[in-house]
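Hi there,

I know you've been waiting on this one. I reran it after we fixed the sequence typo, so this is the corrected version. Both the input and the resulting structure follow.
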Amino acid sequence: MLNELVGILWAPFLMCLVLTGIHAYLGVHVLAREVVFVDIAMAQIAALGATVAFLLGYEIDRWESYAYSLVATLLGALVLAITRSRRRHVSQEAVIGIVYAVSSAAAVLVADRAAHGAEQVRTMLVGNLLSVRPFEVGKVFVLYALVGVMHWFCRRPFLLISTDPARAFAEGWRVRLWDFLFYGSFGVVVASSVRIGGVLLVFSYLIVPALAGVMFGGTVAARLLIGWSFGTVVSVIGMIASAALDLPTGATVVCAFGATLIAFWIATRLSRRVATLSAGRVAPAADRRL
């Protein structure tokens, strides 16, 4: 029984680790830019592209489906780059919300015209993680590694624009162009991830590990290490819970992210309260000795 479970789950688990590696890093940028919902918007745009491909007769595992998703996300990246301005007359989160709502509605309209369209929408939401094969894990790993190398060479403008956009504008960086490169590479990642894990799982891998890193880490490196560790631990918990309870893997991992983050938050609050009470008890004792 155990050997059968390992045989089924080892490839999906490796895929979860690959998703953790790239999405936790991108999540640090997203939180710094204060555009938390950009991932779910981009993921929904990718899902719209895949739904259009499905309407035209291409299954989700075909390269044509990926091409439609990629083109859609690059268009989304262009919109996000263009709407960036030095003076924020309108919050970019509002633009992201509009992009998400319109792409979601468009996906529903397109799916309504396709046979088994409702099933396609459901697949794009929760993915089909258990169907992942070792070759696909290797292919996605190579793609994400190339994106990671590109981000390494472009780390200075990317980090500066994420953490201090006013300084980036003042120093003369072409912020919109760098934003397009950032969101374009982001779209390459999301277009691949959505086909595997679905919109909800991709959003969870992007935001939750990065948020855990922000809660417990100081430097960017510390946040990344904490985020990667958190994502790995939750992937293990989600996979085990999915196998033990016979639940859909993607949805179980998403719920595991939420439950684990809540548990970490409660533990943090309790530890701070205990530290405060301990400090309060030590201080009067020191005063009495004086």
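Quick highlight: The chain has eleven helices and no strands.

Best,
R. S.
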